[in-house]
Amino acid sequence: MSYSPAHWRRVGEETRRMVAEVPLYRDRPVPPADPAGVDEWLSRVPPVGKRELRRGFPKSLVRAHQDLGAAMRDQRVTLLATSGTTADRLQVIWEWSWWDPQEREAMRLNARIAASMRNADYREAVLTTPSCGAGTCHFGSQTAAERSIDGILFFNESADPTHWTDAECERMLREWCEFAPRGVEADPAYLAIIARTALKRGVRLPSPEFITLTYETTTRAMRRDIALAFDAPVFQLYGATEAGVLFMECEHGRLHPNEQHSHVDLVPVAGRGLARVLVTTLGRAWMPLLRYDIGDVVRVAESRDCACGLRSDGPLLERVEGRQSDCIEVDGETVTPLMLDDAIHAELGAASRLEQWQLAGDTLLVVDPDGGTTAPRAANAVAAVLQRSIRGEHVAAVMPEASGKYRLVKR
What is the pTM of this model? Predict the structure, then answer.
């Protein structure tokens, strides 16, 4: 991967401070002064995961000169828990003054989104788990004003959309119509449910100028149902609560790195074009990350050139394939959740109304209002990929994890 000297100089300067100031990284060797040697040095630095971040938290991630208690009293930072599905939830030192600018800058990598955000009356809505919304929680019964921050309206108040009541759905549909957001950031599973609800009730929701999907893996069924309800372009925004936004999809379907705020190393895994994501944060005063393993598998684009014309030092991605813990190895090759999704929809065809699926051990759970032969056909498609027997079962709903997110593969 060919980064510019200026990029490596910045990575070297920031990681040098991390090693000197952050207890978790003090046993790492000091980065070389020559930017040309930072790449090789970084490749030898051991990655950290959630387990390492939990150990000694928060003291192990607070710089030597920082006073966390004072910063929390001054409301410069706060502690929150991620809604991750990989293991137990991770606590994060949330720094709004870093998070918001880096997210907005990532979004502006997409020319269409950037144009929309320049409008004076730009307003945005968020639909995800209450614990996922920009460091704020909106559980329970609150007014729209109480769920609004800086022109952003947070729709959801419940951690489990399978138990949304008719009244809750009616409230969200009504608020959507009244607020008429120009931009929407959403968990794809949640937005697909709202889309299907609106279609069933004959409610025409105002289409935003763009939709960004994030928080969890987007299946073909989710994209299909969202497209049926909204006449709006849909883009992937990829990142993590603890690491910031790492990639933003452009209008030509490539995910571009948010390289002003993070350095990304891609570590190949078995399978053509697949890699793990290790991130080193840049410009972050609190809780800096050095070679943090996000826990996802991505598909790397073959070329760093893109028709959108955006130039960057970092790699481009074709798509985010899913959690590494949800991948399955078959004959030495990695099979990702989205590869299974591809196989299911290739078998069922464009007319399929399948809404959700989950591979639970050797059983494929399928949610499809048409029922019929969907489950056994989808199971046969998955079985062919995994080279083992899979039983199909129609279910009324797939239950989310405690975090509110849905898993495509459950051991």
Answer: 0.94
